[in-house]
Amino acid sequence: MKRFARFLSIVALAAAVVTGMGVYAPAQAAGEQKFVMKLALATPAGDIRDQVCQKMAELAKEKSKGMVVVEVFPGGQLGDWRDAIEGLSMGINEIVLESIGTLDAYSDLANIDAVPYLYRDIEHFKKAWFGPIGEKILTAVGEEGNFKLIGPQNRGARIVTSKVPFKTIADLKGLKLRVPNIQVYIETWRVLGAAPTPLAFTETFTALQQNTVVAQENPIMLSYSSSFYDVCKYLIETDHVFSADIFIFNKQYFEGLPADVQKILTEACNEAAAWRNEEFSRIEADFKQKFRDQGVTIIEPDRAQFIAAFDGFVEKYFPKLVQWEKEIKALQ
After folding, report:
1. What digits encode the pLDDT tens for the residues 129-149?
2. pTM of the model as a whole
């Protein structure tokens, strides 16, 4: 009996290791089986990113009649975004909601998400990401990085919240500004003369409190839900990046699910994304006033000067993106 029990333990361990390596059983009919998935999110509970995750979970449960259960873990409970993405291949979590740019370590093309001043306006961004070009990018990044990417979502323009005001590039010299540990963001702020400091998002509020950094840049909704108004009394409308969020799965894991479960998840992700995009358009403008109500001063910088600083940026720092940049900019 002891030998038999040991044999079962070894089989179980081997199965866990195989799953952790991202090798999954082929798809088949789900039958009566239940599928429980952990969705990791680095940003706070209650903000719109958390809401879209909860929406996706509700839709998956409803469409599957309870067969697919998505458990949402916001606030970095399963680690910061980089930990969560790495966790996909190890079976720590099955889904991540993050920007496409966070996949830069797996695909050079993912850097297109963070190229500064790539879009003329939000309508131009939508044409790119909610159309054929966006589909091509998601497919290519997924193939290169071994991911299944579903449901592009508008995160909104990135702004800066800061302890000190600025309007021009000269004002930015040496400014200690938190950025995600993504090369495009680091190079962007170096070009502008700031001192970009890569930090985990979950460490940003404390870093501002302790003056490790004096500014941070993120979309306006996320900046508000993270209470950055408590430590930054200026909001500078740089609008330097329009970024897209996406539901991220390990490709082998997703394709190893029964076909009906794949269909349910795809529909749930796309419908939740559509809900967020509509909701975002409806409420984004309100957040500027929310910051004012917290005593924050809104500054409109010399954006034309900022845009001019990035002439030739992609050619110099990210030459593999040149053709994609041209294709996006040519969209009318």
Report:
1. 999 999 999 999 999 999 999
2. 0.87
Give yes or no for residue 5 having a pLDDT over 60: no
Query: Is 8 part of a structural domain of the chain?
Result: no
Tell me how far apart the alpha carbons of residues 290 and 311 are, in angstroms, rounded to a whole number.
Answer: 34
Q: What is the DSSP letter of 90?
A: T
User: Which amino acid is it at 154?
Assistant: N
Separation of alpha carbons 153 and 201, rounded Å: 19
Beta-carbon contacts of residue 270 (< 8 Å; ≥ 6 apart):
150, 151
- Which candidate, 40, 145, 94, places its Cα nearest to that of 253? 94
d(CA 287, CA 13): 49
* Separation between Cα atoms, residue 117 and residue 69, nearest integer Å: 39
Whether 2 is in a domain gets the answer no
**Residue given tokens 């490709």 in the structure block:** 251
Q: What are the tokens at 73?
A: 């873990």
Helices 132-145 and 322-329, interaxial angle, to 10°?
A: 160
- Asked if the structure places residue 327 within a domain, the reply is no
Q: Tell me the backbone φ, ψ of residue 179, rounded to 5 degrees.
A: -130, 155
Q: Give, as one character, the DSSP assignment of residue 219.
A: E
Unique residue bearing structure tokens 């997924």:
142
Tally of structural domains, the chain: 1
- What is each CA distance from 106 to 4, 22, 198, in whole angstroms? 42, 15, 18
Residue with tokens 């998601």: 138
pLDDT in tens, 190-215: 999 999 999 999 999 999 999 999 99
DSSP 244: E
Q: What are phi and psi of 307, to 5 degrees?
A: -60, -45
- Per the structure, the complete domain to which residue 173 belongs is given by 34-321
The CATH number of the domain holding residue 309 is 3.40.190.170
pLDDT score of 284: 87
In the chain, % of residues over pLDDT 70: 91
pLDDT of residue 143: 97
